[in-house]
Amino acid sequence: MGSEPIPAIEVVRRADVSREAASGATDGQIVYAIGDVHGCYELLVRLLAAIADDAKGVSRAGAGQRQPLLLFAGDYVDRGPQSDKVLSTLVWLARHSPFDLVLLKGNHEAMMLDFIERPFHAKGWLRVGGATTLASYGIALPEGEQAVADRCERIRDELMDRLPASHLDLLRALKTSATRGDYLFVHAGARPGLPLNRQDERDFLWIRDDFLENSQPFEKIIVHGHSWTSSTPVLAQHRIGIDTGAYRTGALTAVRLGTPTIEFLQARQVQPPA
Questions:
Q1: pLDDT at 21 (0 to 100)
Q2: What is this enzyme's class at the first EC digit (predicted)?
Q3: Mind listing the pLDDT tens digit for each residue in 178-220?
Q4: Pairwise CA distance, residues 102 & 72, whole Å
């Protein structure tokens, strides 16, 4: 893994989806919300550098009276090749970032934690990206579904031997939602027709079609990851979708809120993944 070439990455602003913010106060705090990382460490590093530069410019312009908030919408692990490095980066940020930091839980972190607690019952995680997370920690799965099923507990035990305690502590401390002013941040979305204070946390992690197909506003604008169709983020009246399929499209996206315009920053591979 260490000998793999680092992909060429560029940072771009998505002016095609930027627009005047009709509403969306953030209680005087600039917010940078990052979509699903999914093990794409190199993209994450470039995007964080771009956010740091952007925040300096915003500060010089006099916008925001508080320290900016850096918020992650979940799904740090699985599918991409370097989940271990992504979690190490989050641990470092939790200790050293000059920004306020909020880390939300995604459904993939929920599955990983479930596998740690109940390896046989949660072995489905291995088929939806968990195998690449294990590989990032140097763990290879046996060939064949039956062999995997027979060795689930051994696989979990090997993961626990190799998983740094700081990574596990971080995973267990993840939040399911956060609020800033007129915005609610969750991983997946919210259940239409229910007040936000009565939502099921499972919907915050897993909901898809019922939320995406809803056209009615909630009490707050929902900023979410979890669902993507292309490398272009979604900006609608009632939701902002910031998952752009980084592991497949090569584009990792952040949205900046709390300034006169909503703007998107992307770190993307010059040559997208095959």
A1: 46
A2: hydrolase
A3: 999 999 999 999 999 999 999 999 999 999 999 999 999 999 9
A4: 6
Question: How do the domains of the chain map onto residue ranges?
Answer: 9-111+176-269
Sign of CA dihedral 82, 83, 87, 88: negative
Provide the whole-model pTM. Answer: 0.93
Residue 226 has phi, psi (to 5 degrees) of 80, -40
**How far is residue 205's CA from residue 197's CA, in Å, rounded to a whole number?**
15
What SS3 state is found at 115? helix
Separation CA 184–CA 242 (nearest Å): 13
Which two three-digit tokens encode residue 85?
Answer: 């490095």
**Is 9-111+176-269 assigned to CATH 1.10.565.10?**
no
Average pLDDT over residues 226-252: 95
Cα(177)–Cα(202) distance, integer angstroms: 11
Written as one string, the DSSP assignment of 51-75 is HHHHHHHHHHTT--SSPPEEEE-S-
CA distance 74 to 205: 9
Cα 220 from Cα 233, distance rounded (Å): 19
Q: What is the DSSP letter of 120?
A: T
- Please give the Cα distance from 86 to 263 (Å, whole number): 24
At residue 183, the 3 state secondary structure works out as: strand
Q: What is the pLDDT of residue 273?
A: 77
Q: Locate 106 and state its tokens.
A: 């995604």
| CB-based contact 192:209 (threshold 8 Å) | no
Looking at the chain, how many residues does it have?
Answer: 274
What is the percent of the chain where pLDDT is above 90? 81
CA gap 185, 93 in Å, rounded: 19
